[in-house]
Amino acid sequence: MKTILHKADTRGHANHGWLNSFHTFSFAGYYDPQRTHFGVLRVLNDDTVAGGMGFGAHPHDNMEIISIPTSGDLEHQDSMGNKQVIKQGDVQVMSAGTGITHSEKNKNHDKEVKFFQIWVFPNKKNVAPRYDQKNFSAADKHNKLLTVVSPLGSADGGVQIHQDAWFSLGKLDKDFAVSYQLKNKNNGVYAFVIEGEVTINGEKLSRRDGLGITETEQLNILADSAAELLLMEVPV
User: Fold this and answer.
1) Which pLDDT tens digit goes with each residue over 139-191?
2) Which of 45, 144, 179, 204 shows a CA-CA span of 20 to 30 A to 15?
3) Which of 183, 196, 189 is nearest to 226 (CA)?
């Protein structure tokens, strides 16, 4: 087993006033040659957007873009004609494919919106752009690792991306133990602690820490406190 640890306080950081963003991997003005990606996982941004503010219309292509809000309401519009609001419990995916333009803004003027934006390199280029979102309740994730993103989409219970990658979310009680079996032993897993403290294969992690794990077929996870965890199994 090989691991790479990214403590929360080592992330890149940019505060633009309306946007406060922490970057696990190199992004925009933050560049670290040792932290450009983990396999096909290219971006993991921890974003807070001020009331009424947001990202104007901008283009993407050939990237799988996943958004996971943790509080507030994020309004999405795109060139496919979608206009949706995503909120806590939702997982949104946008396959940019041949090209798409979209905007994201805080729907509310009186409170922040917080969300994770995650980019994954696709396994197929120039596909037709597509959009999907699905809601997962806290009960769905209680003391289990629930698949929320997968290559098969609804057949696996999650939203679909063009990559042999699986994302799982778990809300774990203190002292709860669970194991994760990799779908493909050649993949790696990037574990990100949303809240709380966990121990994964002997490595203690705290809030917003990230741990990349390769050359193993199983993760053994213990919640050292009440915790919320995101696992991203990706080709490496």
Assistant:
1) 999 999 999 999 988 778 899 999 999 999 999 999 999 999 999 999 999 99
2) 204
3) 196
